[in-house]
Write a structure and sequence with these properties.
By secondary structure, the protein is mainly beta. It contains one helix and 19 strands. It folds into two domains: 42 residues, no CATH class; 175 residues, Jelly Rolls. 3% of the residues lie in helices and 48% in strands.
Length: 221
Amino acid sequence: MALISINKKGSFNNSNEIVFNNTPIFSKDVNGSTAFSNQVIMPAGSIIKHQHYNSGYGSGARTRPDQSWITVKLGGTSLSGPRKSDDNNVLKFDKIFNNSNLSITANFPVYISNGASGNGFRLQVSTNNGSTYSLVDIRPNGPAHGWGATGYGGSDASIFNFTWNTLDNSTIANTVRIYTGPVYFYFECYEWSSADSSFIIDYDDTYPKFGTIQIQEIMAE
C-alpha cells in the first residue's frame, strides 16, 4: 500500500472539487487557490492512470513483416492517443507516480496468407526520452517467439491480443517503477517464413482495419 495525494485522478463533483471514491481530495476556493483536503491509501494493484490509443487505419497503420524485427506502424488516419513528437509509431505515456508498474495491452488485426509458419511480436520501452530502448519482454523474441503468435493453420484472419507488464523483466522493472515522466513504447513484429505474407493491422484501402492499445499505471507493492 502507499499513501498518495491525488491531483490527476478522480471525477469532478462540481467546478471546485475533485472526489475519489466519494471522498473530496482536491478543492479550489473562490479566489482560485487550491488545497488538498484529504489523502487516500492506494493498495497495490490499484489503477491510478489509464490511457487509450488507436492506430488509425490506412497505409500509416499497415505493416508487412519479414524475417527481421520491424516496427509496427501506428500512425494511420484518425489515430488517437499521445505519441512521440517526431514519430507516430511510438506511444507516449506520462507516468505520474514513483512506485508503479505499467501494463500494456495490444489488440492488432492480423491477416496471414499461406500460414505455413507464423508471426511474432515484442515490445520496446524507453525512460530517457527515446534515446535508448529496452525490451519489456522476458525473452528476446517476445512471448510467442518469432513464429507462434499467428499462423500454422493456413490462411487466417484474427486479432492478436497480449498484455505486457514492466514488472516482469527484472532488467527494467525497477527503473520503470521509480521513474516519473514521459515513457515511450513501440511494438515490433516478425514473420518467420518468407513463404508467408502477413498484414499487421490494416489490410488495404478497400478493407481498412485499425488496432488499439491500452496502457495502465498500476500501484506497486
